[in-house]
Amino acid sequence: MTTALRRLIDLPGVDALEYRAILKRDFAEPEARAEFPEIDACATALFGLTADEAEAAPRPAGWDDIERKTPALQAAAFEAEGWDVTDNNRRPLRVLGHFSGPLWLAVRGVAGSLPFQAENTAPEAWASKLEAEAKRFRKR
Predict the structure, then answer these.
(1) pLDDT tens for each residue of 29-66
(2) 3-state DSSP call for residue 117?
(3) Which of 76, 102, 106, 125 has its CA 20 to 30 A from that of 60?
(4) How far apart (Å, rounded) are the C-alpha atoms in residues 75 and 63?
(5) Do residues 40 and 17 make contact, with C-beta atoms less than 8 angstroms apart?
């Protein structure tokens, strides 16, 4: 069974912050957190820590500093961990820098927590196709 990637942009508040970063490029810069407290509020609500708290958190031995790598490299690494941190055009989110530290710590179980995600109860596409085929077969 394949699992769908969790999308960062679908988490509460992230889409609105991404939109603001599109309108104002400086919003995506680390310095913007001091001017716009809603960035830290969103990170805390989602992961239990801000980007600054994530930066200050102790790392286990052998930590690869993945949160400091380029957004493109992080997007590929996040995908391997089950997270999609890109927009609808498959480009890394502009606000990824505000969330990558807390998200990496939470994904790896070092600090913070991942937001709750309800289990998907919708049948997968292949299951519904198989069911429809079985119904057609019974009618013959």
Answers:
(1) 999 999 999 999 999 999 999 999 999 999 999 999 99
(2) coil
(3) 76
(4) 18
(5) no
More confident residue, 116 or 22: 22
Cα–Cα distance for residue pair 92/105, rounded to 1 Å: 19
Q: Are 78 and 3 in contact (CB under 8 A)?
A: no
Closest Cα partner for 7 from 60, 79, 59, 61? 79
6 sits in which H/E element: strand 6-7
In the predicted structure, residue 131 carries a pLDDT above the cut 60: yes
> What pLDDT shows up at residue 133?
81
C-alpha–C-alpha distance, residues 11 and 104, integer Å? 15
